[in-house]
Specification:
With 259 residues, this protein is of the alpha/beta class. The chain contains six helices and seven strands. Strand 5, helix 5 and strand 6 form a beta-alpha-beta unit.
Length: 259
């Protein structure tokens, strides 16, 4: 972390905030492009100070997040995690089905407890149907297992890195105090705002593409109708020519008969 340290005072390393601001802008720009492309960004923060902040801010942009214990193999063994999520959805369907009423109280209680456990650990990633395009981590030391899995799969890692951490495995380093809730809220807020901008631009692009497609399809239909009219006119002219030719032949036959 030496490049990001401004000075040391009484054994405490002070981060260079100018570099922090530059790194925030760099990370925000990258996350904006990922969100604009329609891909998911997984946020990981299981420390107490960050849980509520992540759940509120990241949940508002419909991005997946993990604020409870990181389930080992969540990325490297993703199909198994998806099976657990499907189990949760199947329980939800069961609860709305008529067969639910036929179960005993004990069975209902066991299933409800299982559902609550799955919801606690996997509820926030229920919509994650494929591996995320990037991962944002608060405290790389605490979430070292998640970081290792992301590196193994080639998933870019964005992270708040404190002075006691190693930024070597992080693709987008944001030097910051990862223990202070104010610091976490400020940086997560900046990332979420960038994601919102990316999603808004994606929506605007789609809305602009729709009229263009409609116009091109209308133009195509208009061209087709013109071709039909032209073809019909040619057919009518051909029929008239045949009728004129037939009439001329009839006149010739009548004249020959009279002679």
């Amino acid at each position: 972390m030496a490049p990001y340290i401004f000075m040391e005072r009484n054994g405490i390393h002070i981060i260079d905030l100018h570099k922090t601001a530059a790194k925030i802008d760099e990370a925000a720009a990258a996350l904006k492009q990922i969100a604009k492309s329609g891909r998911k960004i997984l946020f990981v923060a299981t420390k107490k100070q960050a849980k509520e902040i992540i759940a509120n801010k990241v949940g508002s942009v419909n991005m997946p997040y993990v604020v409870e214990r990181w389930p080992g193999g969540m990325l490297t063994n993703f199909p198994t995690i998806r099976k657990a999520v499907k189990k949760m959805t199947s329980i939800d369907r069961m609860m709305t089905d008529t067969s639910w009423t036929s179960l005993s109280k004990r069975e209902k209680l066991q299933i409800s407890r299982q559902r609550a456990k799955l919801e606690k650990n996997l509820g926030s990633i229920a919509e994650l149907n494929r591996l995320p395009a990037a991962m944002f981590v608060v405290d790389v030391m605490k979430e070292h297992i998640a970081v290792k899995e992301a590196i193994r799969l080639g998933i870019p890692v964005f992270a708040m890195v404190d002075t006691n951490s190693d930024p070597g495995n992080v693709d987008f380093v944001i030097p910051a105090n990862d223990d202070a809730s104010n610091s976490i809220e400020l940086i997560i807020g900046a990332m979420v705002d960038a994601i919102k901008e990316g999603l808004a631009e994606r929506k605007a692009d789609k809305e602009n593409e729709a009229p263009a497609k409609d116009k091109s399809s209308k133009g195509g239909r208009k061209g087709e109708s013109k071709a039909r009219v032209k073809g019909r006119k040619e057919e009518e002219e051909a029929d008239e020519a045949v009728e004129v030719e037939a009439a001329d032949k009839a006149d010739d036959i009548d004249a020959a008969d009279q002679e």
